[in-house]
Amino acid sequence: LEKSVFFRMLEKYAHTARRALRDKIKLKTGPQVRVSPEDYAENYRQMISLLEEKGVGCIIVIPPADIRRGYMEHYLSRAAILRSVAAGSNVPVIGPQDPFIRRPAECFLEDGFHLTVFGNTLVAEAIVPAVKEYRKSITAD
């Protein structure tokens, strides 16, 4: 069967149909929350604390979100938590979102989570200046 073109095509369409059904169900039910907002914030505080103990610098990068998906409310609440944790820990935070809102089809793969080469380039272009600025701030101390 693996050599059959028809079978491979059927498998591909079945996979696409499963993904579409899964996405439709997620849109109706909303995102599945695995970690409470309190635990989410505490996890980041602990990671920052561990890095500080080891003398390692930290910058929080809020990953971009695909606005075509049905989880923006969840995304925005988690981004707000990260910004709050960063402010409370005096850690720089960046969240390159604008280009991803304007051009989501160019930035995200079909799954809506993983980035295309273009999307990764945009994130890198946002991170590099933040790292340079952070390095200046720690060497000035």
Structural class of the helices, strands and pairings?
A: mainly alpha
What value does the average pLDDT take?
83
End-to-end C-alpha gap: 66 Å
How many helices? The count is 6
Spatial sequence of strands, sheet with the most strands = 1-2
Give Rg in angstroms. Answer: 19 Å
User: How many strand units?
Assistant: 2
Series of H and E elements? HHEHEHHH
Which residue ranges are poorly predicted, with pLDDT under 50 across at least 5 consecutive positions?
none
**What kind of sheet is the major sheet?**
2 strands, parallel
Instruction: Give the fraction of residues assigned to helices.
Output: 55-70%
Principal-axis shape equals elongated
Q: Which percent band covers the strand fraction?
A: under 5%
